Amino acid sequence: MIGGCASCDAGRDARRDPRPKLTNALPLADFAVNPATEVGTLTDVNEAHDARLRIAAIGFLNPAPLMWDFEHPPLAGKLARRYSIDRMTPAECAARLASGEADIGLVPIAALATSPELRILPGCTIASKGRVRSLVLVHRASQPLTALQSVAADIASRTTLAYARILFQKWGNPGIQFLPLAADLDAMLERADAAILIGDPALLALEERSNRMERTQEELVYRDLAAEWKALTGLPYVSAVWGAAHGSLLDESVAEDFIRSRDHGLANIDALVAEWATRLPISESTIRSYLSGNIHYVLDEECVEGMRGFFRMAAECGVLPPYTVTVEELAARQRS
After folding, report:
1. Alpha-helical runs (H) found in the chain
2. 8-129+237-334 is a CATH 3.30.70.20 domain
C-alpha cells in the first residue's frame, strides 16, 4: 500500500493494546523471515459478534474508487453500521493491522513479508501496469543514476522504498543511501542527490514541474517508478492490497463488500473527479486519467505474478526476507 476480525475475546483484547510507535528506519533488509500469506476463502463469523470492523484506510487519491460504497449512498449508511474507518499513511495502515488496532487494512505489500499474521482479501489492489505518476524518483539532470549517492525518501511507504532499492541494484548503484524525510521536494533535494515522492505529493510535484523550473532554473529528471519497474522486469507494480489478520473470522460477505465497492467506484469515476478536484490543486483531466488509466484496481493473475516477482527479487537483493504468496480461488472473486 493494502486484517480481519478476530474471535470475540481476542479482538476486544487487541483493541485495548497500546499502539506501537511506527518505525521508518532503513535498511529494510533487517526484517526477520516470515511464512507465506494466503489469499483464500474467508470463514464464517460468529453471528453473536456485533462490533464494527475497524478499517485502516489510506488518505490519498488513489484508493478513492475502492472506498466508494463506504462514502456514498445508497450503501454508506448500511456499511457504517458494520465498519468504522480511520485514514492514515500506508505504513501506519500496516502497523495498525499488525498491532490489532485495525481489523482490515489497505496494506503495502512489503508488510506481508514482515507480518506473518496478515492475509490478503481477494479481489482488490492498488497497482499499475505502466506509468503510474504517483510514484516518482526526482534527481538532477546533471547526475546519472549510477552517480547518485543519496536519496531522500518519502517515509509514507516502505513498499516503495523496497521497489526503489531493487531498482537501484539493477541500475548498478546498490550502495546508494536512503534518508527518510517528509515529502517536500525542495527540502529533500537540499539534503540528498535525489528524492522519492509517493501519492498525492508526487502528483503535485508533476503538476508544478514547469513552475519549479522557472523558479529555480534547475533541470530535474522525473522518473516514474512503476514505468521503470515495468521496463526492467516486465511486471506490474503492485503497491497495496486489502489485508486481514491471519486466523480472523470474517463472513464471506466482507470480501464481497470491498469488491462491490471497488466496482461501484470504477463506475463513478466522473463523480470522484468532481469531488477530488476541490481537494487537490490538480486538474480534473489529470485526476480522471489517473484514476481510470494509471491505477489498476483488480487483483488479477497478472498482479499476483507481479507480487511473486517482487518478493523473489526483494529476497535476492537482500531487501526483504524470503516470502511466498499463495493464491486460492482468486479468479472466482475478481468479478471484473
Report:
1. 8-16, 68-71, 76-80, 90-99, 158-170, 185-191, 200-207, 209-216, 225-233, 252-266, 269-277, 284-289, 301-316, 330-334
2. no
